Amino acid sequence: MISKTYETYAPEETLALGEKLGEKAQPGQIYTLVGDLGVGKTVFTQGVARGLGIKEPVSSPTFTIVQEYDEGRIPFYHFDVYRIGDVEEMDEIGYEDYFYGEGVCLIEWANLIDEILPPEAICITIEKNPEKGYDYRRITIDASI
Fold this sequence. Notes:
CATH topology: Rossmann fold
Structural class: alpha/beta
Number of strands: 7
CATH class: Alpha Beta
């Protein structure tokens, strides 16, 4: 397991870190994104999309579960599984086509569907620490090798 931790002090820095990740992303990669409400998961995701060359606005697909973006260098599938009541709902949207396809998947609230995540998924955790400032974020990226 390789683990790398970053600290950001402004939303723009969180966005820029996501953008660097998006620039390096490869087809078939799955990123899981975990963190409390309001921690910056969507800001980070917007950066990933920008790094993939996606120009259209990216917002959290809370009610649709998945949003597809095809205009970048690799298809991008942005999941928000916060409202998933049961993992079987993922079967209904055909998650395997996304997870095992040629695009990049990023899954917000991925801890809610742990049992179906592939072991090679790259886990990103975003945490706040009010003692270090309102916009401070600790972003940890864990990858299996």
